[in-house]
Design brief:
GO molecular function: GTP binding; structural constituent of cytoskeleton
Pfam family, one: Tubulin
GO biological process, one term: microtubule-based process
Mean pLDDT: 91
Protein name: Tubulin delta chain
CATH class of the largest domain: Alpha Beta
Strand content: 15-25%
CATH architecture of the largest domain: 3-Layer(aba) Sandwich
Number of domains: 3
CATH topology of the largest domain: Rossmann fold
Radius of gyration: 21 Å
Shape: globular
Distance between the termini: 35 Å
Bound molecules: guanosine-5'-triphosphate, magnesium ion
CATH superfamily of the largest domain: Tubulin/FtsZ, GTPase domain
Strand order of the largest sheet: 6-4-1-7-8-9-10-13-11-12
Helix content: 40-55%
Subcellular location: Cell projection, Cilium; Cytoplasm, Cytoskeleton, Microtubule organizing center, Centrosome, Centriole; Nucleus
Structural class: alpha/beta
Length: 435
């Protein structure tokens, strides 16, 4: 079984490149059976024309409204005059679709202008990639919700992809912007993206740049994190839910995150998930870290209760409204003794008792990221609430003042369309609040 990744816009493409690097290096460090499973899932053997740049080709479709980032991804290791080691994998040039001009920071421009212009070409490119899979296990989209291409074009392409593959698990990794607001209309774009995601994907993994910035600073020891560091931190969490685990009930040849989308998002009102991983250690110190399973699980429970991402003592006290409630979650224990570890501490997680099988646990002896023991965690829970509340408050305030609406009307998005998206955002916020 294989998974095809869709990379939309600058953020989606940069994040995708980091993710494939991570997956490939995990395969290189894994025992042969697991390495084979990882490569079959996310890579295919390179054709003769691309083999000189690596033996494997990422199963990916790259899309953008400007050529720069896609071209850099395609050039990969050759780009910097050989300073970076040859990475052993590459993208296939024919797997990319890009235009000129960008999407003007505007969801409507991406959705209504660029979307229809490239949809057919993207679907044809995706079809070719799907035909190279023995069996398609799912589609994973990477994008930012903040500006024009990843959010607007991404939303359009996810809709046509859903129509073309109605029965295939479809998940997104949706990056939320920094709170500081690089773009004044980012809350509009996020609301429009979220409304669309709720109609198309089975599961949307929400990764907030602000939280990962804090993770890099406070826990990973990087005083001034770059976007590349943030991508590395996101992929460090993500990869623990994407690697197949041979000892798990999910089967050797499937992507856990996609296989679990039905379990995590069984209820149609709750489609958002967040990631966590422990331990959080600075790059280069992995070999000196040897946390026990009981300690890791206890800290994970504290982190989940607090709704946070960063593991620090103050997170233990929990939020003032009580512990963050969880609809459903999956924990992945990676490393020495994972299959034999007692799971007693994890049973204290604040999971929703009405859900069937609310917590699933999977394990494998592979040491992810060189850590003797680590836990990855994906949960559908109230941790998304602060992000939803901030976006909803800002977007409704701007809408009341009719701010920037003309920019959207210019690209065919009416006030009613915007109001509907905001209502949908408020509804999602309300549903998570009432959990
Ligand atoms: N985590 C992460 N965030 C990114 C990255 N690149 C951009 N962003 C964030 O994504 C948002 C901007 O989205 P981009 O992906 O740059 O824009 P785009 O989708 O290409 O859309 P346009 O350029 O407007 O056509 C901002 O919130 C950035 O902080 C990245 O590599 N990693
Ligand atoms: Mg761009």
């Amino acid at each position: 079984m294989s998974v095809v990744t869709l990379q939309f816009g600058q953020c989606g493409n940069q994040l995708g490149e980091e993710l494939f690097d991570r997956l490939f290096s995990e395969a290189a460090a894994a025992r042969p059976a697991l390495a084979g499973a990882i490569r079959r899932l996310y890579f295919r053997e390179a054709s003769a024309s691309t083999a000189r740049r690596g033996l494997y080709t990422a199963r990916a479709v790259l899309v953008d409204t400007e050529p720069r980032v896609v071209q850099r991804c395609l050039q990969g290791a050759e780009d910097d005059g050989g300073e970076r080691p040859v990475r052993g994998w590459s993208y296939h040039g024919a797997g990319s679709v890009y235009r000129q001009g960008g999407a003007a920071n505007n969801w409507a421009c991406g959705f209504n202008v660029h979307g229809p212009a490239v949809a057919e070409q993207v679907l044809a490119t995706l079809r070719r990639e799907v035909e190279r899979c023995d069996r398609l296990g799912g589609l994973l989209a990477l994008h930012s919700v903040a500006v024009g291409t990843g959010s607007g074009l991404g939303s359009h392409l996810l809709q046509v992809t859903r129509d073309a593959y109605p029965a295939v698990p479809l998940a997104s990794v949706s990056i939320w912007p920094f709170e500081g607001g690089e773009v004044s209309v980012q809350c509009y774009n996020a609301a429009l993206s979220l409304a669309s995601l709720y109609e198309t994907v089975d599961l949307a993994v929400v990764c907030e740049n602000e939280r990962y910035l804090e993770l890099c600073r406070l826990s990973l020891g990087e005083p001034k994190p770059s976007l590349a560091s943030i991508n590395a931190a996101i992929c460090g969490n993500l990869v623990r839910t994407l690697l197949p685990s041979l000892r798990s009930s999910l089967g050797v040849d499937s992507c856990p995150l996609l296989r679990l989308s039905g379990h995590l998002c069984a209820h149609p009102l709750y489609r958002l998930a967040t990631l966590k991983a422990l331990p959080q250690v600075a790059h280069g110190t992995e070999a000196f870290t040897s946390d026990g399973w009981a300690g890791l699980q206890r800290r994970l429970v504290q982190l989940v209760e607090s709704g946070g991402t960063v593991d620090r003592p103050s997170a233990a006290s929990g939020a003032s409204q009580g512990p963050c409630r969880v609809v459903a979650a999956s924990a992945f224990l990676w490393g020495q003794g994972a299959a034999e570890a007692s799971l007693d501490p994890l049973r204290k997680l604040p999971v929703w008792r009405q859900a069937l099988d609310p917590l699933q646990v999977h394990s494998d002896p592979h040491q992810v990221g060189g850590l003797e023991r680590s836990i990855g965690f994906v949960s559908n829970c109230q941790a998304v609430l602060p992000t939803l509340q901030t976006a909803a408050t800002r977007a409704t305030g701007m809408m009341r003042a009719s701010a920037y609406m003309h920019q959207y009307e210019r690209y065919g998005l009416s006030r009613d369309d915007m109001s509907e998206a905001l209502l949908s955002l408020l509804q999602v916020q309300n549903d998570y609040e009432r959990l």
